[in-house]
Design brief:
The complex is a heterodimer of chains A (654) and B (549). Helix content of chain A is 67%, strand content 5%. With 654 residues, chain A is mainly alpha-helical. Classes of the chains: A mainly alpha (654), B mainly alpha (549). At the A-B interface, strand 1, helix 5, helix 6, helix 25 and helix 26 of A face helix 7, helix 9, helix 10, helix 12 and helix 14 of B.
Chain lengths: 654, 549
């Protein structure tokens, strides 16, 4: 089975092909919808089964042999560059692959119900399958180039899916924004890739055998760049620092970290299952995966920066989540915040904890998003929490599963979120002596964690408690095709903590060949403290909005807390104006420069042409005058000026 | 050096192109000339199909002749087919054994052969695109001009002598002026043709001026030197020029100015800043299919010529593109500056465009900036890195031709249906014709450089090559310039997928146009996923071009 791992990305791709080439042509709307759903679910489900079998087989190998590579063909071979199109399966890729296909299958099933009645549903499922393919290439690629293919591919699918409901205002703008902001990070990754090729002569992660020839892997040879520096005289940098900083820029794009996180909240314009799959459980965690995969390159300097980026993102996004009204935007900022936890963990060198939190978060955040989708579905496309209230009685399954997800996110014992988050916080506490910045980071993370519990309490209260504040709809529970995935995910949320319980630490052992980490130390004191804090602030959030202010919340009204906090609340709601900052500085500057260049180098535009042609015809009989009145003169002038400038250059430079 | 009878197979593709052009022109006489639509359609179809068949055959013959598919082994039995192939492939480079140029004027090396394949292939795709157009008034004239221009491009790729170079450029350009202004009733088209012509005349003058400087410099060296030591070939041939320039020692300013004027003259053909002013107007005004031709094949021919001239005539002024001041200079340094300017200005000026063809014109200028980087890689200290630069440049040219023809082809279909080539005309294309929208997505993402499409690897290779030449600053600029580039490419796709159409009736996609687009799209995908065979072919080029260094 291990030699068949290429089936895992191929199966969803086949689903994509069937849904694009065949399903779209079915004339009958109902048959088309049903076929599209079944094909997509079947394709991902099959991939999950293959992935599970391969995973089990990988586990039967001796620990040091748990790296299996399958080279499909030689992709690029020119000069000294040799990159195979090869897949690999190691413990890290294995858990990621299971998360992607497992949660992916549940979300595909859920989509059948959620997207019922949609006009373009074949296209939706095709994009979703293509996304799974690309995500699997990302986590299973045995070289950086294939990882990058997946990296761009998931970005592409994200673009198509965010803009899927383009009739909705802002969807297409959000789609473009997501892609372009990510491109900033991608440019940095390309640069890192070239630097890696330049210094290591390879892009493979591990030694790969192609046609009997062994090609080295850069992760195994990091000693090559140990101590190598570049820079101008007087200021040199370790090359490892530069490469890892470039990778970090890529991570801030894809994993929505400071300063590039602004695209993720807007991305909520896409259908909710897409938010669950792409913008919570899988794609946005690719950055954390990338750090874990290439952690050997990261130098202490970069790791400190990584930790700070993660911690600051965690707290900024957590404050923003408190002040949102949109049920999905709360979860979006929460995702950004939790990704900050993972990145901070990776920065502190506890990659296992980062991956552990990635996995549990993937499960319970998917649950929360799907739950919010169920709420939106049951309230006829209502997303504003002020219009909800009292849904507990109308949607019992959604309520109970959502409650489990919320408690897990808040970090309440014994749900999955508690174990993974505690591992990160406990580490920061125990290792505060490692570096000066660890202790402040610990406090930031604890504070963010308390805020997490607070905004989840607030959300639970606003959505499920109190009385229904808007009576324009009749809430109803979602069909079972949507609630069953919720129940399964809720079950997983209860159990997933077992992956790395203190004492058993299965995940640490499993990832040992990749990470070579010791089991995390458990601190009962920190655990009790964190739980009490979470429970306290969660209860406070719930109590404020379900009891104290229950009658002060009105449709289109201000938040009750606004009266105490005022401008601070507005700043939180606007996520500390990062978007506004970019929109008032970088974007207009860009526009102005572009407009300038267009005005200078594109002198007459469209109208000028039309007018100019009139003149051209009027004077066509007189060639000399045409020359003097057309635009050619301007061009010739520019041309000639160019030549003069270059001559000037030649005179000075040669 | 005189012309030998055995040189005929070496220039067979060019001879065939000439014959085809005359045949198209002549055969049109035998069609039914009448005022009714049916007759016009028949004439158009007859010329178009003759041109398509002819170009297809010439492409196939060139491919057979090149030996890239199959070379007859020396041990093979003699029979009709092996003899035919042997004769066809005689005089074609094999390994490091490259024949001397025909009459010192026209090299038949790997570079020329790849050029021939690229130009005839592109012309073939273009002819397919025009097949379903509304009938032209004089189809024979139209298609024979197209084929003549293709012939000129082949000569550009192989020219190794100054006069030949100039004639090749003019043979390429003059038919294109006419083709750009072919719709005599369309004001924009007429203006495009006129503008293209005036601008071309201007740059031809510059080119000739530069050539006269270079020639004068070299011949004065020849007079000063011992004439018996000179090679027997004509002074204007590239090889002689190089040797004379090398003998002269430290290059004098007059030579550099001559070189600069030549670069400016060729810079017009490849549309780089600041010699690009004509291209948005011409691209927008010319018939869309001709725009596709001008923006791909003609630009590619310019790059073939630029590479050969700079590499064989001026190797000792190659200079360095690294911006530490005392190291900076030569033609690589200058081209590096021009490439940086081109990338920045084109990608920013493209942002506010509202016309799809004009936007693609700026995108084409930006791609020329990337392509220049392949030439700049010639500054690399190691020959393998220089080879990588050439391979990357040629790979980029092939890929760029395919994806740009595809993108313009889609615009041509949309313009034919809606009568507009504004970006808004693309609105809701996904609802009106999903297949066409999907093809367009492939082309646009390839242009934007999204893996695994070939456009990504083209950029990746060329940046790697420039990195090896240590011009990392240029790589950084190129990468940053792709960020706004993605934004304007997404504007096209946003219109296609995320805007409601004005009318929701399905958009008809003519059969042969679709065929051309499907071939292009398949190539974009295959060249991205399996680039190795093409790269193997391109790697053979080194033997000729850089050996002179």
């Amino acid at each position: 089975m291990l030699d068949l791992i290429w089936l895992i990305p191929l199966l969803p791709f086949i689903g994509f092909l069937i849904n694009t080439l065949y399903t779209g042509r079915i004339a009958d709307v109902h048959t088309r919808e049903r076929t599209a759903g079944y094909v997509a679910v079947g394709a991902v489900g099959a991939a999950f089964i293959v992935a599970l079998l391969a995973f089990v087989q990988l586990g039967q190998l001796p620990e040091e042999a748990r790296l299996h590579q399958v080279v499909l063909w030689t992709w690029l071979a020119t000069g000294s560059l040799n990159v195979p199109f090869g897949l690999m399966l190691d413990p890290l890729a294995g858990v990621m692959m299971l998360l992607v296909t497992g949660v992916g299958t549940l979300i595909h099933i859920y989509s059948i119900g959620y997207m019922h009645g949609d006009k373009r549903v074949a296209r939706y499922f095709a994009y979703l399958n293509l996304f799974i393919t690309m995500m699997l290439l990302l986590v299973m690629g045995n070289n950086l180039l294939l990882l990058f293919l997946g990296w761009e591919g998931v970005g592409l699918c994200s673009f198509l899916l965010i803009g899927y409901w383009y009739e909705k205002r802002s969807a297409s703008g959000a789609a473009v924004k997501a892609f372009v902001v990510n491109r900033i990070g991608d440019a940095a990754i390309l640069l890192a890739m070239m630097a890696i090729f330049f210094y290591f002569g390879t892009l493979n992660f591990f030694t790969t055998t192609v046609n009997g020839i062994e090609y080295p892997g850069f992760i195994e040879e990091t000693s090559r760049i140990a101590g190598v520096t570049v820079g101008i005289p007087g200021q040199t940098f370790l090359i490892g620092t530069i490469i890892s900083l470039l990778l970090l820029i890529g991570v801030t794009g894809k994993s929505a970290q400071l300063p590039l996180f602004v695209w993720l909240p807007d991305a909520m314009a896409g259908p909710t299952p897409v938010s669950a799959l792409i913008h919570a459980a899988t794609m946005v965690t690719a950055g954390v995966y990338l750090i874990a995969r290439t952690h050997a390159i990261f130098t202490p300097t970069t790791l400190a920066i990584v930790t700070w980026v993660g911690a600051l993102t965690a707290i900024i996004a957590a404050t923003a989540a408190i002040a949102q009204w949109d049920i999905k935007r709360v979860l979006a900022y929460s995702t950004v915040s939790q990704l900050g936890f993972m990145v901070a963990a990776a920065g502190m060198g506890i990659y296992v904890a980062a991956i552990f939190h990635l996995l549990t978060h993937g499960v319970f955040k998917a649950l929360l998003f799907l739950g919010s989708g169920s709420v939106i579905h049951g309230t006829h496309e209502t997303q504003d929490m002020r219009r909800m209230g009292g849904l507990r009685e109308h949607m019992p399954t959604t309520f109970w599963t959502y409650l489990i997800g919320a408690l897990s996110l808040a970090g309440i014992v014994p749900l999955a979120g508690f174990w993974s988050k505690d591992e990160i916080i406990a580490h920061a506490w125990k290792h505060q002596g490692d570096a000066g910045y660890i202790l402040p980071v610990f406090f930031i993370l604890v504070l963010s964690s308390a805020m997490t519990a607070f905004y989840m309490g607030r959300q639970m209260a606003l959505v499920f408690w109190g009385k229904q504040r808007d009576h324009h709809y009749h809430p109803h529970e979602s069909p079972s095709v949507m609630t069953i995935p919720l129940v399964i995910l809720a079950g997983l949320t209860v159990l997933a903590g077992a992956l790395n319980l203190p004492g058993s630490h299965w995940l640490t052992d499993w990832l040992h060949p990749v990470m070579r980490e010791e089991a995390a130390q458990f601190s009962i004191g920190v655990a009790v403290f964190a739980t009490l804090l979470a429970a306290g602030s969660g209860y406070l959030g719930w109590w404020l909005y379900a009891v104290k202010f229950a009658n002060k919340i009105t449709v289109d009204g201000k938040d009750p807390l606004y009266h105490w906090t005022g401008d601070i609340w507005d700043s939180m709601a606007a996520a500390w104006y990062f978007d506004a900052l970019y929109n008032s500085t970088i974007v207009p500057a860009y526009r102005r420069v572009a407009g300038f260049f267009a005005a200078v180098f594109d002198p007459q535009g469209i109208d000028g042409i039309v007018n100019g042609v009139g003149r051209l015809f009027g004077r066509a009989s007189n060639g000399a005058r045409t020359l003097q009145n057309g635009f050619v003169r301007t061009y010739a002038l520019a041309f000639f000026l160019g030549v003069v400038v270059i001559i000037g250059y030649l005179i000075t430079a040669l | 050096m005189s012309f030998l009878l055995t040189d005929i197979p070496r220039i067979l593709p060019e001879i065939l192109l000439l014959v085809l052009a005359l045949l198209i022109l002549g055969s049109d006489v035998f069609e039914r000339w009448a005022a009714d639509e049916q007759a016009a359609l028949e004439r158009h179809r007859a010329s178009a199909s003759l041109a398509a068949l002819g170009l297809g055959m010439i492409f196939a013959i060139t491919l057979l002749q090149s030996g890239y598919l199959y070379t007859v082994p020396d041990t093979a039995d003699s029979n009709y087919f092996t003899n035919l192939l042997r004769n066809l492939q005689s005089g074609i480079p094999r390994g490091s054994n490259v024949p001397l140029p025909v009459m010192d004027m026209f090299a038949t090396d790997h570079l020329t052969i790849i050029g021939r394949l690229l130009f005839t292939g592109a012309a073939f795709l273009i002819v397919l695109l025009t097949y379903d157009n509304p009938p032209l008034r004089n189809p024979g004239e139209f298609y024979s001009l197209l084929v003549l221009s293709t012939l000129g491009m082949c000569l550009m790729a192989g020219a190794t002598e100054l006069i030949m170079l100039f004639l090749a450029i003019e043979l390429t350009s003059i038919p294109l002026y006419v083709l750009a202004g072919y719709f005599r009733n369309d004001r924009q088209s007429v203006e495009a043709g006129m503008k293209y012509f005036l601008y071309g005349a201007f740059s031809s003058a510059l080119l000739l001026y530069g050539m006269s400087f270079v020639y004068g410099y070299a011949s004065s060296t020849a007079v000063a030197a011992d004439l018996t030591a000179l090679p027997t070939s004509v002074i204007t041939s590239f090889d002689t020029l190089r040797e004379l320039i090398a003998q002269a020692g430290e290059p004098a300013p007059i030579l550099l100015i001559g070189m600069l004027f030549m670069i400016a003259g060729i810079g017009y053909k490849i549309a780089i800043v600041p010699f690009h002013g004509w291209s948005p107007d011409v691209y927008q005004g010319a018939p869309t299919t001709m725009t596709a031709f001008i923006s791909t094949a003609s630009k590619a021919a310019g790059f073939f010529l630029l590479l050969r001239v700079l590499d064989t005539v001026f190797p000792n002024v190659v200079g360095n593109p690294i911006p530490v001041f005392d190291e900076f200079g030569g033609w690589t340094g200058m081209l590096a500056l021009l490439a940086a300017l081109t990338l920045i200005i084109a990608n920013l000026a493209a942002l506010p465009q509202t016309n799809a063809k004009r936007l693609l014109a700026y995108s084409g200028i930006a791609h020329a900036g990337f392509l220049l980087m392949g030439v700049i890689a010639q500054a690399a200290p190691f020959s393998t890195d220089r080879l990588n630069g050439v391979v990357a440049l040629l790979y980029y040219l092939v890929v760029y031709a395919v994806m740009n023809i595809g993108a313009f082809g889609v615009i041509a279909i949309v313009a034919q249906d809606t009568g507009s080539d504004e970006i808004t005309a693309l609105n809701g294309l996904a609802q009106r014709n999903l297949g066409l929208a999907a093809l367009f997505t492939v082309f646009v993402f390839a242009l934007a450089g999204i893996p695994p499409l070939a456009g990504f690897f083209a950029k990746f290779y060329i940046m790697l090559a420039v990195w090896q030449a240590n011009a990392i600053w240029l790589v950084v600029i190129a990468l940053i310039s792709t960020i706004p580039a993605l934004y304007y490419y997404l504007r096209l796709l946003r219109a296609v997928f995320m805007m409601p159409p004005d009318i929701s009736t399905p958009m008809p996609a003519p059969r042969w146009m679709m065929a051309s687009l499907v071939v292009s799209a398949v190539l974009v995908l295959v060249l991205g996923l399996f680039p190795a065979p093409l790269l193997d072919v391109l790697e053979q080029v080194q033997v000729q071009v850089i050996a002179g260094r």
